[in-house]
Amino acid sequence: MARYGRVARVIFDLDGLLVDSEPVYAEIARKVCKKYGKEYTRETHMKEMGLSVDESCQVVVQALQLPITPEEYRLQLESDCEYERRLAEAPLMPGVERLVRHLFNHHIPTAIASSATRTIFDSVSSKRKDFFSLFHPIILAGEEPEVKKCKPAPDTFLVCEARFQTKAEPKETLVFEDSVAGVEAAVAAGMPVIMVPSKDIDIALCGKATLVLNSLQDFRPEEFGLPSF
């Protein structure tokens, strides 16, 4: 039974939703901030989740009053010798592979719409090329001239929707997100959105989502008119 209406295709966020990469960012960020006598806290991490890389770096530098520019902060993150290796080894989130392959096997178009950079995407996908080949299109907001504003603006999802080979209305495009900014972007695009929040996110901030799940393992495709497992 399509409890939440029927959808025709699916868009996934990347970091923290498909791949458990957020702990990698947090650990490297703590190392950089510690050099300047600053503590990278859970609250700081929550403020930057879902934003573009440039915007998140600006948030951290301003919130912690680091004596460096956002660009210098970003360069220090990306130059850490553990950064790319740790991203490449970050595991898929629980339930992800089962769901994505299920959708693919039933010919449901699936895409990725993320604020990640090409460097980040190449790192997290480097050891899973077969899995990531199941997605089309893959929109990396910072690399797309058509994306004028990143999440929480709707541009990332609207550009992604336009790149599907089949046409459908926004209300028929289901989004999976883990961040508040991502949920707001999907809502602004007129798309139903399932939030699988980080354990650090206050549940009170999840109210705009169509549905909130603890894990993708709990997703029931038939509730959105998709083939059941």
Protein described:
The chain is of the alpha/beta class and 229 residues long. The protein has two domains: 9-20 and 90-224, HAD superfamily/HAD-like (Rossmann fold, 3-Layer(aba) Sandwich), CATH 3.40.50; 22-88, Putative phosphatase, domain 2 (DNA polymerase, domain 1). The chain is 39% helix and 10% strand. The protein has helices spanning 22-34, 42-48, 53-64, 70-79, 83-89, 96-105, 118-125, 129-132, 155-163, 180-188, and strands at residues 9-12, 110-114, 138-140, 173-177, 193-195, 211-212. Helix 10 links the parallel strand 4 (173-177) and strand 5. Helix 2 runs antiparallel to helix 3, helix 3 packs across helix 4 (70-79) and helix 5 (83-89) packs across helix 7 (118-125). The chain is globular and about 55 Å long. It starts with 8 loop residues before the first strand and ends in a 17-residue tail after the last strand. The model has no long low-confidence stretch (mean pLDDT 93).
